[in-house]
């Protein structure tokens, strides 16, 4: 959906309908945050599968992932809309090209908080999970090699 909204955004902006533009900007923002959130959930799943292998049963795991994956971005979008719906709007990249308009976040502060900071937090989480998984794999490999050397002797 992120790709679909991104590709149709410029074309729909050409209709000069403020409501349509706000909707497209909001959808683009939502699906971008949802993609980031699902990326984070993948790293959590990766961690659970490779580090916490045993006793990891989480009741209604998929439902909880879906609520987090689709709900957290919805909360962010709702907060932005509650604060001011005019944060979303038409931003022109170039006046000489009629199809260069793009509906997106108009306020830099909102952009940096709701997109850049959000991505940065998820990037930190993914990095932490990745390092933890690497350390776990390395420790398993080291223990296996020590056991092999012990039995070889």
UniProtKB/TrEMBL annotation:
GO terms for cellular component: plasma membrane. The keyword DNA damage does not apply. Keywords: Membrane, Transmembrane, Transmembrane helix. GO terms for molecular function: G protein-coupled receptor activity. It is a multi-pass membrane protein. GO terms for biological process: adenylate cyclase-activating G protein-coupled receptor signaling pathway; cell surface receptor signaling pathway. It is found in: Membrane. This is AGRG4 protein.
